[in-house]
Each structure stands twice: as C-alpha cells, then as structure tokens.
Amino acid sequence: MRSNALARTLISATAVAALAAGGLATAGTSFAASASAASTQAASILATNNLGLSTTQAKYVQCFLRGTPASYTGNIDGQLGTNSWKAMQRWLREYWDYNDSIDGDPGPNTIKALQRMLAFGWSYTDKIDGDPGPNTRAAFKRFANDFAGLYPC
User: Fold this and answer.
1) What is the overall mean pLDDT for the chain?
2) 3-state class of 67 per DSSP?
3) First vs last Cα of the chain: how many Å apart?
4) What residues contact 54, with CB distance under 8 A and at least 6 apart?
5) Using alpha carbons only, what angle is made at residue 86 by residues 84 and 92, rounded to the nearest 5 degrees?
6) In the chain, what are the helix, strand and coil shares in percent, each to the nearest 5?
7) What pLDDT is stored for residue 10 in this prediction?
C-alpha cells in the first residue's frame, strides 16, 4: 500500500512540475520520457514483494533458486519480482505441493506452499493459510539466512 502511494506521489509530482513549466502540451519529449520512466519505475516497485526480506536476504533466496531445478536466471538484485517468484513457484511445485499457475504472483496458493516448506525446516508453526503474516515472514527470513554463504553466486 505504501508503494502505491509513493508511486502515485512521484507521478503526480512529475505532472505538477511539467504543468508549472508551461503545461503538458509544451513540455516536449523530455517530459514524456521522464513521465514514462516514472511510470516504469512505479510499475517495477509494485511488482516486487520481498515478504519482509532485506535486499541482502532476497539475494540469498535468488542465489538459492539459481542453484535449484527452478532455474532462476534473472539478476541477483535483491528484488523478488515476477521472475524470482516464478522460479520459487517452480521449486514449490516440484517439492512442496504447489499446484497453481506459474505466474510470478506470490498469492495465497504460493504462500501456502511456502508455509508448508517453512514448517518443514524453518520453525513455522502457524496455520497453512496463505497469509504472509509476521510468523511467515520471520520463517522466510530464517530460510533466506540459511543460504547466506551462497551470495555472491
């Protein structure tokens, strides 16, 4: 929710600046390029869900996924975006009974499979309910930290 507000604020501020400089019609191509960049940045911010992991911890997860049959081939950037979650879903499908689409969206079924995995070896003891609450996030951090030696990978 905070990311949505930040993205809207950024885009609104860019539009206000352009209007103050003479309006959208006379702002020229430089405004169009900066507005496009702001929109692209906002979209990439909204497409990332680290589930409470720091950037470094998310890099550990990406390195782990790179070394599994999930075949993560994206950048090790510490941002769990669509490609990271697709790799996680492939891995969860293979080993943790994930049976939904490989779409890169960490929705309830992805989280349920993640919770099953976290219950197995990372001290997750709550319900398998698909809600990435504080206990899911804490267990996911323990999981990530177990792969600290893999970064850089």
Assistant:
1) 78
2) coil
3) 32
4) 78
5) 105
6) 60, 0, 40
7) 33
